[in-house]
C-alpha cells in the first residue's frame, strides 16, 4: 500500500524493500507500483549457487513446487540444529546452545552461516527485482 501511495504522490524511483516483500500476493496487492523495485531476502532458488540448486531440485521433486526463501532458511536452521547436536555429542540443551553459538561457516543452502558473539547469523544477502508477477535474482552480497 505504501508503494501505491508513493506512486500516487509522483515518486517514480525504484523502491527498496525487505524480505517481507517476498509474497505471492505482493504484485496482486501493489500491482504496477512495485514493478522494477528491489528487495533483499535470504535466498533465491534461481541464484545458481550449487547447494541451492541441489536443494531446489530435491524440493521440486518432492513437493512439486518452488521453495521460497523461508523454506530454505528453515532447512538451514534445522540442519544447523542437527549439526550442533552432533557437535555437542549430547542432547543437553546448554551444550546444544553453545554448539550453535560457536557455529562458523556452516554450509547452508542460503550460503555459509557464522554465528557472531551476539548469536546473530552472519550470512549472505540476496537481492531480487520484481518483474511481472515473478522475482528475478539480481545478486548475492556476501558479508
What does this molecule look like?
This protein has 143 residues and is α+β, with helices and mostly antiparallel strands. It folds into 2 domains: 61 residues, Rossmann fold; 75 residues, 3-Layer(aba) Sandwich (Rossmann fold). It has 5 helices and 7 strands, in the order αβαβαααβββββ. It has a 4-stranded mixed sheet with strand order 1-2-6-7, with no helix packed on it. It has a 3-stranded antiparallel sheet with strand order 3-4-5, with helices on one face. β3 and β4 form a beta hairpin. α4 crosses α5. The longest helix has 20 residues. The protein is elongated. The two termini are 32 Å apart. The mean pLDDT is 95.
Q: What is the number of domains? A: 2
The backbone outline, from C-alpha atoms, is elongated
The major β-sheet equals:
4 strands, mixed
Which class of the largest domain in CATH terms? Answer: Alpha Beta
Annotation, overall tally of beta strands: 7
Oligomer: single chain
CATH topology of the largest domain: Rossmann fold
Helix content: 25-40%
Q: Separation of termini? A: 32 Å
- What is the strand arrangement across the widest sheet? 1-2-6-7
On the 0 to 100 scale, the average pLDDT is: 95
- CATH A-level architecture of the largest domain: 3-Layer(aba) Sandwich
What is the string of SSEs from the N terminus onward? HEHEHHHEEEEE
Unreliable spans:
none
What are the salient characteristics of this protein?
143 residues; Rossmann fold; 2 domains; four-stranded mixed β-sheet; three-stranded antiparallel β-sheet
Task: Summarize the structure in short.
With 143 residues, the protein is of the alpha+beta class. 38% of the residues lie in helices and 22% in strands. The chain has 5 helices and 7 strands, in the order H-E-H-E-H-H-H-E-E-E-E-E.
Amino acid at each position: 500500500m505504501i508503494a501505491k501511495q508513493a506512486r500516487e504522490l509522483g515518486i517514480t524511483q525504484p523502491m527498496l524493500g525487505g524480505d517481507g516483500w517476498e509474497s505471492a500476493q505482493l504484485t496482486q496487492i501493489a500491482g504496477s507500483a512495485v514493478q522494477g523495485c528491489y528487495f533483499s531476502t535470504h535466498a533465491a532458488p534461481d541464484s545458481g549457487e550449487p547447494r541451492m540448486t541441489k536443494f531446489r531440485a530435491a524440493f521440486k521433486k518432492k513437493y512439486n513446487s518452488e521453495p521460497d526463501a523461508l523454506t530454505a532458511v528453515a532447512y538451514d536452521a534445522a540442519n544447523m540444529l542437527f549439526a550442533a547436536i552432533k557437535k555437542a555429542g549430547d542432547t543437553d540443551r546448554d551444550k546444544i546452545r553453545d554448539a550453535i553459538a560457536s557455529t562458523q561457516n556452516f554450509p547452508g543452502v542460503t550460503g555459509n552461516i557464522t554465528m557472531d558473539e551476539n548469536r546473530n547469523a552472519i550470512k549472505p544477502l540476496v537481492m531480487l527485482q520484481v518483474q511481472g508477477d515473478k522475482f528475478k535474482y539480481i545478486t548475492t552480497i556476501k558479508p
